[in-house]
Amino acid sequence: MSQRTVRIAAGQGFWGDWLEAPVRQVRGGPIDYLMMDYLAEVTMSIMQKQKSRDPRAGYARDFVPLMERILPDVVAKGIRVTSNAGGVNPRGCAEAVIEVARRLGLGGKVRVGLVSGDDILGRLDELIAAGHPLADMETGRPLAAVRDHVLSANAYLGMAPIVTALRGGANVVVTGRVTDTGLTLGPIFHEFGWSPEDWDKVAAGTVAGHIIECGAQASGGNLLRGWRGVKGLENPGFPIAEASPDGSFVVTKHPGTGGVVSVASVTEQLVYEMGDPRSYITPDGVADFTTIQLRQAGRDRVRVTGIRGGPRTPMLKVSIAYFYGYKAVGTLVYAWPEAYEKARAADRILRARLADLGLEFEQILTEFVGVDATHGRLSGPPDPGLPEVQLRVGVRARERAPVERFTREIAPLVLTGPPSVTGFAGGRPAVEEVVAYWPALVDRRQIEPFVTVEILEA
Amino acid sequence: MTAKTSRGRKSSGKPGTVPVQLRYLAHARSGDKGNTANVGLIALEPAYYPLLLREVTGARVARHFRGMVSGVDRFELPNLNALNFLLHDALDGGGTISLKTDAQGKVYSTALLRMEIPVPTGLARTLRRS
Questions:
Q1: At what angle do helices A90-103 and A63-77 cross, to 10 degrees?
Q2: Do A439 and B114 touch (CB under 8 A)?
């Protein structure tokens, strides 16, 4: 049975992902859509900070030079791009893409769909006053507790505005906080004209989106099973979802690329960041991951079928970032013999000095890299002949001053502590501002009427 | 080569079984949601899934991670021959607050694969070291 399929290619799995991937997705074979996910939980707050310094900033800056590289191919091949690169300034991002299109001589050929309305920072007080507490989903505390420290607040939007933009003829859709999965669902629903209340189809598209949203993590990157056998990761093929009108899809990648698309690679991605598998909740619906059927259907092709889902919930998730305090991490490397013992002695000395200075921290955490940093006590007793151990001490405080002072206590250990120490060439550790994440829920009726879609012409 | 039982111990606990680390029976990937880490544990062969289902209980995983997590929830995905574990309070505050190297729980996956379960001697002999 040959049916028309729609090929959606993943170009970026996070802000900072491999810059060559979108270029190779566009040039390496036929695709209909390129979707690029840029937003992790705290990315919005970083962008908000950048925007407060420069009102033209506040979006994933990498996106614009990247579009400059791929727009000629995108236009020539009729590929359409969906991305949440807009961050807290989707308008600035969309206008920058328009400018690039004109500079490339693509005037009249590029239409940018601009999705906004997810940003509720300016509406927080109004929402709280109207009886929406925006309580922390983990702790239940009302947002009022940290209201004065809030840096950004964005509701997660689903596929609806993307479908609207595509229907309006956009070939590049730029959004703020649209879900990772919405970037894939939008194109599929637009192409097949499915009803947004066909919950099994919503669930299927959601699963397709979840599989490709982390880029090569579904196609051989970070794959544990048989990792030595994964070849060609110097040129990893990012995943492509090939969707069929019946709701099934195939996960694949371009020929001639490295990595692997297998039941194992797709399964590892499916369980990544999973909660209750029967209810994977997005703004568009609820997918049941216990209904997913996977089958190897050729080399680097996995067919995905059988997905069931349920209706969307009345609430939307809100991603809020607030200023929390300061932290710093200092490291030193101790060499054989007795490397671990020396590192432990240095930690005792450091802690005694911090206490003697009367510095107050919310937390001091010591890890011994090479001994227990990642698996804690499960690592078992260390090999007494360890060639080296890295002492890694982190501190966190609400105030800057104690953290600042801590950063000056690392280097002195080199000449005033245990011997055989090195690895301090990087200098004093940096004091980092801690911006914390506050997940909340809000009635979708408070958000959806404010969502707008504009089409900008190059 | 057959799977090595841990630290050279002979069969312990249940008669007719030997303790085998999960790494010889499953692969895994982990991630985070706030201060909770999740570990998806996937049977290397469909035939191993019933064994994982029976032996890798929420209570045993909680014991494996005692002192590192405050509680464990387990979910079953028989369609993927997988189990999903939520490890609560595993990330020292999680996200940007955490001071841990593994603040996002990326390698809790292999920490779970250190766990040993009793495996029938006959099956244990067939397990390949990978």
A1: 60
A2: no
Structure tokens at A380: 């078992």
Cβ neighbours of A319 in B, within 8 Å: none
Q: Which of residues 59-98 of B touch A (CB under 8 A)?
A: 64-65, 67-68, 75-80, 82, 84, 86, 92-93, 95-97
B107–A374 C-beta distance less than 8 A: yes
The CATH class that applies to domain B18-122 reads alpha beta
Q: Cβ–Cβ of B97/A268 closer than 8 Å?
A: no
Q: Does A140 touch chain B (CB under 8 A)?
A: no
Q: Is A291 on the interface with B (CB under 8 A)?
A: yes
Sort out which chain A residues have CB atoms less than 8 A from B30's CB and list them: 272
Closest Cα partner for A208 from A164, A246, A156?
A246
pLDDT tens digits, A388-422: 999 999 999 999 999 999 999 999 999 999 999 99
Please provide the DSSP assignment of A182-197 as one string. HHHHHHHHHHHT--TT
**DSSP tag of A417:** S
Mutate to test the interface with A, among B49, B66, B74, B97 (most CBs of A within 10 A): B97
Q: Over its length of 130 residues, how does chain B's per-residue pLDDT go in tens digits? A: 344 444 444 545 788 999 999 999 999 999 998 899 999 999 999 999 999 999 999 999 999 999 999 999 999 999 999 999 999 999 999 888 999 999 999 999 999 999 999 999 999 999 976 4
What pLDDT, on a 0 to 100 scale, did the predictor assign at position A1?
43
Number of Cβ pairs < 8 A linking chain A and chain B = 124
Tokens of A81: 């791009």
The full set of domain ranges for chain B reads 18-122
Domains and CATH numbers, chain A: 6-118+156-313 (no CATH), 324-436 (3.30.70.2750)
Q: Which residues, at least 6 apart from A36, have a Cβ–Cβ distance to it below 8 Å?
A: A10, A11, A12, A22, A63, A81, A82, A83, A84, A85, A183
Tell me the nearest-neighbour CA distance from B15 into chain A, angstroms.
Answer: 26
ipTM of the complex: 0.95
Q: Is B46 exposed, middle or buried (0-12, 13-18, 19+ CB in 10 A)?
A: exposed
